[in-house]
Amino acid sequence: MALGKDYVTQECSIARALEVVGERWTLLVVRDALYGVRRYNDFLGHLGIPRAVLAARLQSLIDEGILDKRRYQESPPRYEYVITDRGIALWPTLRALGRWGREQLGEPQMRYFRHAPCGTELGPYGECPGCGTFVPAEDVVMEPGPGLDPDPADPVSRALLRPKRLLDPLQIEPAQTGAGKEGA
Fold first, then answer.
1. Model confidence over 32-51: pLDDT tens digits?
2. Residue 65 and residue 61: Cα distance in Å, rounded?
């Protein structure tokens, strides 16, 4: 029996949310967009997702107003996927899910999230213990934690080893030859 794509019999806002972001890979695409990934090939290489699945997830996120598709090059035409306010609103959910995975599944600390103006690590609910305020995504600096591979193979993971603000476009350095990595 095929699994349906909606929860019409459920009277629940969680069920409605799952209709939008509950398919496999979708939240990881949103996570990467929050981290500043914008280009199709960067999503593809970082996630290891099948092309057809990525294309479907990106289109679904565009249709739902979570991502916006913008042309960044005319010839040949190339597009980037920019997270919208509706997508940014998923940040507290993704942060909580990551925290749950770390605490309940024994995952190591992959990243630290800090309040940009004061440098304080965010509290469990996205608040700044130093300032006593909720920190919006645009004021969050992400830094690598001890659980990350210090020498990852893909360029997105390498770029994410540098501290950066959420939402800022990820700056991916060109592949270096002789770096000992495939495709480098």
1. 999 999 999 999 999 999 99
2. 6
pLDDT beyond 50 at 135 = yes
CA 129 – CA 57 distance, rounded (Å): 36
* Residue 8: band (very low, low, confident or very high) from pLDDT cuts 50, 70, 90: confident
Q: What contacts 134, CB < 8 A, 6 or more positions away? A: 125, 126, 127, 128
> Band of the pLDDT at 10, cuts 50, 70, 90?
confident
> For residue 12, what are its two tokens?
């629940």
Question: What's the whole-model pTM score?
Answer: 0.89
Q: Which residues contact 109 (CB under 8 A, 6 or more apart)?
A: 102, 145, 146, 147
Q: What is the mean pLDDT of residues 93-112?
A: 94
Q: What are the DSSP calls for the chain, one per residue?
A: -PPPS--TT---HHHHHHHHH-STTHHHHHHHHHTT--BHHHHHHHHT--HHHHHHHHHHHHHTTSEEEEEEETTTTEEEEEE-HHHHTTHHHHHHHHHHHHHHS-----EEEEETTT-PBP-TTSEETTTTEE--GGGEEEEE-TTS-SS-SSHHHHHTTS-EETTSPP-PPPP-TTSSSTT-
